[in-house]
Amino acid sequence: xxxxxxxxxxxxxxxxxxxxxxxxxxxxxxxxxxxxxxxxxxxxxxxxxxxxxxxxxxxxxxxxxxxxxxxxxxxxxxxxxxxxxxxxxxxxxxxxxxxxxxxxxxxxxxxxxxxxxxxxxxxxxxxxxxxxxxxxxxxxxxxxxxxxxxxxxxxxxxxxxxxxxxxxxxxxxxxxxxxxxxxxxxxxxxxxxxxxxxxxxxxxxxxxxxxxxxxxxxxxxxxxxxx
Length: 227
Description:
alpha/beta; Rossmann fold; seven-stranded mixed beta sheet; three-stranded mixed beta sheet; 8 helices; 10 strands
């Protein structure tokens, strides 16, 4: 009898990443918008398999939970933002949909219970990698789930300098017929990444030049011509 696979993610993103990184026995992850050590976590599965990593989350309560349950990781209280060093976080009950976008917060408040605002440190993805990822460490998995600011963060991320093997990011309000033109997708594919999987809102990309090392025959070495 085949046992069901246990997923901690909201939409099975961790199982997709595990499939792509199945040849990596003990790797390194960066989880941006980590939320909780286990609930809706894209990296809990890797943590339990002995991986090291960095968890980034703006809520202090969440950081306290990571410090308790993932003491082996570096747990940073920060919000990813391309322009601001101090960011206003719009909080909602439960913390799952907290956002740095005022317009998104206003729309959400019409149907979700708010929990106030707070000022939190802000940093870019580039600064996060430059300052906190050890220079001798290969990042195998980057997960970005920051409630509406995902695309801005990814598009500003220097993928020529920082090249995680696998990148997972949410994309909202997309059309599959035109998804190749989405700014985040264009940025990633233009930097040599292959769209590996779509899990509801979460898009997983794999570096083409890492496919052989990872044993992924499904990933073409060059983009597939569409004409």
